[in-house]
Amino acid sequence: MCIAYLLMARKNSFLWLLLLSLICTLEYIVYMGAKPAGDFSASAIHIDMLQQVFGSSRASISLVRSYKRSFNGFVAKLTEEEMQQMKGMDGVVSIFPNEKKQLHTRGVLDSGIWPESDSFDDEGFGPPPSKWIGTCQGFSNFTCNNKIIGAKYYRSSGQFRQEDFQSPRDSEGHGTHTASTAAGGLVSMASLMGFGLGTARGGVPSARIAVYKICWSDGCFGADILAAFDDAIADGIQLPLELFHGNEKTDTNISFCCNDGPVLASITNFSPWSLSVAASTIDRDFFTKVQLGDSNVFEGVSINTFELNDMYPLIYGGDARILQQVLVEQI
C-alpha cells in the first residue's frame, strides 16, 4: 500500500512525496561495528550515508540518533526498500528493526528506580568521584543523592502511557529491584509480609548507582538501550565494548539469559561471543498447611500472608481469575 501511495505522490508536489515516504517508514538500527580511531563526526558520516540512499531532502529528519561514544551506528527511519539498499553499503555490518524487548535483569539499565527506598540511603557516602561526569535529570518527583549519583531516561518515540512516569522514577518496580540487588545498602528487619525476616543488602552495598531508564510499561526498545549504553560510557561507567561486537582477545562475556522457561527456544539474549546465564533458586522453602473438611491436613509450598479462621469451599485455580474479575465488576 505504501508503494502505491508513493507512486501516486510522485504526480503531485514534492511535499506530498516527503510526507508519504515518512508515513511508510520504520525505525531501523544500522550497526557499523567498532568506533573508528581518532576524532570523527558521527552525525555527518551517517547523514552522508542517508543522502546516498534518498538524497538530501530527507536525510537530516530521517536520522533519529547517532551512536559515537562506544561503537559506530545510528537509528534512522527507512522504508523496506531503503533498508535493503543500505544493507549493501560499505561499513554496514547489520541492520535490524528497532523492536521492543521484554524486560530482563539489566542492572541499572532498566525501568528506573524509586529513590526513597531505604536501599538507596546515602548516609556515610561522600560526594561523587571526580571522574563522574553524568547528570541527574531532576524533576519535581525525583532527586538524586550521594548513593544515586546519576539518572536519565530514554524514549525515542516520545510517546508515554498514562501509567508511566516521564522521569527516571520507576513505575514498574523491576528497576528498583535489580538496582537494590546489585548495589543496595543494608536494610535491617526486611521481610515479605513477615517471611524471610532479616537484613537485606545488595551485592556491593558500598557502590554508587547511576540509573538509565530504558524500560517502560510496554517494554524496552533497542534504540533506547543502545543510547543508554552510549551515554553510560561517556558518563564514566566502565562497560565492556565486547557486549556490542565481540572480543578479539577471545575472553568470555557473561550476560543474563531470560525470565522465561524451561521451554525450548526461550533464550532472548545471546550472541556467539557471550555466555548466557539463567537465574538460580533460593536456599529455602516456604510451606503452608491446608486442612480439609474431613480433618486431613496437607502441606505444600506456598506463601500465605493471612490467617484463615473458618472453612472455605475449594475451587479450581483456573477459575480464581474469573471470580476476581466478577467481584471487581460488582464493586
Automatic annotation (TrEMBL):
Coiled coil residues, start to end: none
The answer to whether the entry has keyword S-adenosyl-L-methionine is no
**Pfam family of this protein, just one?**
Peptidase_S8
Q: Where is the Inhibitor I9 domain?
A: 28-104
Q: What GO molecular function terms would the record report?
A: serine-type endopeptidase activity
InterPro entries attached here?
Peptidase_S8/S53_dom (IPR000209), Peptidase_S8/S53_dom_sf (IPR036852), S8pro/Inhibitor_I9 (IPR010259), S8pro/Inhibitor_I9_sf (IPR037045), SBT (IPR045051)
Which family is it part of? Belongs to the peptidase S8 family.
Q: What is this protein called?
A: Cucumisin
Which taxonomic lineage does the organism of this UniProt entry have?
Answer: Eukaryota, Viridiplantae, Streptophyta, Embryophyta, Tracheophyta
